[in-house]
Amino acid sequence: MFSAAIGRTRYVVLIAVVAVLLVSFSLFLQGTVLALSTLYNSWHDTIFNGIESQRGTLAIDFLEIVSTMLKAVVFYLIGVGLYSLFISPLNLTSALGVESLADLEQKIISVIIVILGVTFLEHFVRWKDPLETLYFAGSFALAGGALVFFQRVHSGQGSDLQQPEAKLRARRELFEHDDEQRHIEEEDVKRAEEATESKAEGKVEADAGAES
């Protein structure tokens, strides 16, 4: 009875899921409004002031839109990932390769690295203060390098359920049959067990080889 009660506390995660998804939707809406506003202003200035009026500013405005959308994607991945991991498995997360917190972590870090790249590109295009841009490039190199190193160190530590067949089936159910709920079949469990055993055997062989 007590174990069941503790297990059901996982539904507390719904609070975080709702909050994070609201942030994501807000960013998507703000990015859309920003895109429409930027398109209107850019064409208005182009028509009445000529194409020269857009030189040096248009790319920055569009990069800001891309950055906003990518931030929305980060929060969206966190929201659906937490829901799938703690509440109910989704075909969407399985199709994206998110089967564990480690997988979710890897996906988020990948998007963050892209956001860092876009942000640096914004500073580079502005090129107002070369020294400040150089400092920012150094900061970007340190942060991006640390994230890439973290990914390399933790690569391959995701879920054993990440089988190609399971991903393809999840995509088919999601996009062809419009089925959001993921159904874990017995064959998925068997494949996961086989993958776990293979990893364990590989580690044993590697250790044995090292000792010999």
TrEMBL record:
Transmembrane segments: 12-36, 73-96, 108-127, 133-150
Keyword terms of this UniProt record: Membrane, Transmembrane, Transmembrane helix
The keyword Ribosomal protein is assigned to this record: no
InterPro entries per the UniProt record, alphabetical: UPF0114
Compositional bias ranges of the Basic and acidic residues kind: 174-206
Taxonomic superkingdom: Bacteria
Region annotation Disordered: where it falls in the sequence: 174-212
Protein name: YqhA family protein
Species, as recorded: Deinococcus marmoris
Lineage: Bacteria, Thermotogati, Deinococcota, Deinococci, Deinococcales
